[in-house]
Structure formats: structure tokens, C-alpha cells
């Protein structure tokens, strides 16, 4: 099978969500505060459906299990990556994610290392990224006393920035930010602080996970050292944001396409593609497929090469696992 797999997004209502997935990306979204577009997913909480070709109507996780050749016959039991677009109309909870060992033991799923490409950030936007506690005792004391102003690190952010968020990192997207998130396929989030917000459906404050957070937060916080590399080929620009060994689970790239370029997989690899802006086409095996803003697809391992053409801003990723 030599064709890309175009995917239908799944949308999730969130207390912090808004309507920008509709106004900025043109998605048909449900009513309410929609915070997340699960764009490429095999996770049971939001399964992506193939919309074209031989496998039209099948879910990504079923293809992973029944047609492993599409993914280079990997060893893993689950499709390992999840691509989202997040619309933070309000600030997300301050949170942390567990590593694989803790998540398997307590949640029976993968841990969650993730990263953000900032699609849009309003003036004055910032992230919560890391903390200021010097040791575990100081961390626990600051959490228990609610000393959030001194504990949490606020980092200014702008459109086009990239942040790598390993498991164990205290973090939050704050209001006014849209981001594309590449992550391990996990839906485990431990809320550390949530501004005392109340769920409309229950009238109660949202659940916090203080013990799990204290168990899993990395102390002290150390910013990961990224070696971001940008190269220009003709009119096209290719940026590598993160890759193994810094990120064991995925590599993430930005491709700014202005003229035709032919790309190839490493042996046994497959590529996840999300079009952030622009329009153009992808050509596989002599057949053209339209690309435009908000389209998400997988180029399977059975495709040796493909050509991109047009005016396209793409975030692409590959699994770091065999």
C-alpha cells in the first residue's frame, strides 16, 4: 500500500477551551468550550479514523494491530504517538505527567513526555515551565502551603517557539496560546493546582492529584538542553527541534516548503504530518493529494518517498522507538 493515510480529528470539550479550532483552523467542532483536537491518535480516548483509500473507515490503532507493515513492523503493543492541537482560551491546570514505569504501575498505560510548537501566542502570553524548589523537602513544603508564586516558573512565550516537556516536568499552557503538541500516547495527567475552578456539571472543584504529583515531579528542575538545527535547501527550510537521544520517544521537525522537495523515510520509519498553515500537495507513487491548513496524515513505512509542493508550514514527527 503506497498512499498516505488522511485522518479525521476528534475534539474534546475542556473547561479552559474556546472556539479558535473553528475560527482559526476551520474545523467543524461541537458546541461548547473545545480545547483539544486529537489529530493523530490511536488512544482509546480519541481514535483517529482514516478517511481515504484502501483503509478508509479504519482506526489507527486497528491498523497498528492488524497491518503492522504500515509502521515498519514495530515491537510496541500500542501506537506510540499522539498529536494534538490545543486552544487555551483560559489557562490549563498546573500539572505533571509520570514516566513509563510509574504510569504502567499506577495507570496501566504509557508515561507522557510531550512537546509544544507554539502556533499562536497573544502578547504577554507565558507558560508554567518547571519549578524553583531546590530539593524534595522544599517542593513538598511549598505545595502544601500553596506557595505557587514562589514555586512555579513563568516563562514568556511567542509564536513559533518550541518547548520540550519531559515526564516529571511541572508545566501548563496559559491563556491566549494555541499549540501543536506531540506526545507519547497517554492520557494521564496529575493536576497540581487548578485555580480553584469548579466543574459546571458537578458544581465541585476539579480533582487534584497532590500525592501523584509529589511522587513524579523531577527535583530540582533542569531545563533540557536542545540542539535545534535549521538548514535551508533552495527555498525550503527544515528545522529539527528534538530527536533521540534527548527525546527517546519522538523526533519533531518543522518543514517550511516553498518549492517542490522529495523526502524519504529512514528504513522502517513512518511519518506524522500536520499542516499548520498554507496549502499545497503531497505526491505519492505518482498520485497527488491536496494539503491545506488543519490537515493531518500519516505517511506509512510502506511509502519509500514522497514529494511536497506548495506554500506549506508543516510540523512532522517520527517515533523514536523501534
UniProtKB/TrEMBL annotation:
Keywords: Isomerase, Metal-binding, Zinc. The active site is at residue 191. InterPro entries: Carb_Metab_Reg_Kinase/Isom, Man6P_Isoase-1, Man6P_isomerase_Firm_short, MPI_cupin_dom, PMI_typeI_cat, RmlC-like_jellyroll, RmlC_Cupin_sf. Residues 6-103 form the Phosphomannose isomerase type I catalytic domain. This is Mannose-6-phosphate isomerase. Its EC number is 5.3.1.8. It catalyses: D-mannose 6-phosphate = D-fructose 6-phosphate. PANTHER family: FRUCTOKINASE, TRANSCRIPTIONAL REPRESSOR MPRA. It comes from Companilactobacillus allii. NCBIfam families: manA. Gene3D superfamilies: Jelly Rolls (2.60.120.10). Its cofactor is Zn(2+). Residues 239-317 form the Mannose-6-phosphate isomerase cupin domain. The keyword Metal-binding applies. One of its GO terms (biological process) is carbohydrate metabolic process.
Amino acid at each position: 500500500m503506497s498512499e498516505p493515510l488522511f485522518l479525521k480529528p476528534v475534539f474534546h470539550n475542556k473547561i479552559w477551551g474556546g472556539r479558535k479550532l473553528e475560527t482559526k483552523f476551520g474545523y467543524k467542532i461541537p458546541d461548547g468550550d473545545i480545547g483539544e483536537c486529537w489529530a493523530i491518535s490511536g488512544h482509546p480516548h480519541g481514535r483517529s479514523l482514516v478517511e481515504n483509500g484502501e483503509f478508509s473507515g479504519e482506526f489507527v490503532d486497528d491498523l497498528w494491530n492488524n497491518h503492522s507493515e504500515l509502521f515498519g513492523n514495530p515491537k510496541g503493543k500500542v501506537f506510540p504517538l499522539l498529536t494534538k492541537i490545543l486552544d487555551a482560551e483560559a489557562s490549563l491546570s498546573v500539572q505533571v505527567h509520570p514516566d513509563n514505569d510509574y504510569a504502567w504501575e499506577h495507570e496501566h498505560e504509557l508515561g507522557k513526555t510531550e512537546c509544544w510548537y507554539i502556533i499562536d501566542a497573544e502578547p504577554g502570553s507565558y507558560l508554567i515551565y518547571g519549578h524553583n524548589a531546590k530539593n524534595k523537602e522544599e517542593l513538598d513544603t511549598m505545595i502544601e502551603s500553596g506557595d505557587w508564586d514562589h514555586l512555579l516558573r513563568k516563562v514568556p512565550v511567542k509564536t513559533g517557539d518550541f518547548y520540550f516537556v519531559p515526564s516529571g516536568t511541572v508545566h501548563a499552557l496559559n491563556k491566549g496560546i494555541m499549540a501543536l503538541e506531540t506526545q507519547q500516547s497517554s492520557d494521564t495527567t496529575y493536576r497540581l493546582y487548578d485555580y480553584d475552578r469548579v466543574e459546571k456539571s458537578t458544581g465541585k472543584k476539579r480533582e487534584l492529584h497532590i500525592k501523584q504529583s509529589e511522587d513524579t515531579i523531577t527535583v530540582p528542575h533542569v531545563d533540557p538542553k536542545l540542539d535545534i538545527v535549521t538548514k535551508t535547501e533552495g527555498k525550503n527550510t527544515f528545522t529539527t527541534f528534538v530527536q533521540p537521544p534527548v527525546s527517546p520517544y519522538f523526533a519533531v521537525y518543522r518543514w517550511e516548503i516553498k518549492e517542490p522537495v522529495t523526502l524519504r523515510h529512514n528504513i522502517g520509519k513512518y511519518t506524522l504530518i500536520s499542516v499548520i498553515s498554507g496549502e499545497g500537495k503531497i505526491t505519492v507513487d505518482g498520485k497527488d493529494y491536496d494539503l491545506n491548513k488543519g490537515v493531518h496524515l500519516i505517511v506509512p513505512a510502506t511509502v519509500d518517498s514522497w514529494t511536497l509542493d506548495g506554500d506549506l508550514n508543516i510540523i512532522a514527527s517520527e517515533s523514536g522507538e523501534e
